[in-house]
Amino acid sequence: MKKTTLVAALLITLLGFAFTMADAADKFVGKPGPEFHVEEWVSSQADTDGKYILIDFWATWCGPCVRGIPHMNELHSQFKDKVAIVAVSRESRDKVEAMKNPVMDYYSAIDSQGRMGRFFEIRSIPHVVLMDPDGIVLWKGHPGGLSKSKLKSLISDS
Prior knowledge:
Elements: H1 2-26, E1 40-41, E2 52-57, H2 63-67, H3 69-79, E3 83-89, H4 93-98, E4 107-110, H5 115-119, E5 127-131, E6 137-141, H6 148-157
């Protein structure tokens, strides 16, 4: 009996957490995001003029973030004409540049004060936010949930 109660309580807690996370993402979707801003570019500066911006909040010490780089490289390869993917880290330039593997094919920048992350209430990484060329948030969540087909749908529906 105690095991059943414990399992039920755990499931209710997890479901509540999942709905809270979904609500947090939904409160941004369809609304204007902040003006895109970073302190320093590690790569060349992204050309965001007239493009969608996919902000990838990450860190070199974050295993899931690093493992997600090949996925982001694939998205960049397929959508680079319409979408500027920018990896934003709160770490120092030296830390980001020291990470050699895997190679990031998309843009990289530093926001040590976490202004963009604070606006979007980023509490865990990896996390991505997609904004349209007018700055409207189209999607927010874990990068694993943003497949090629999902991204294609988002940028062709807006």
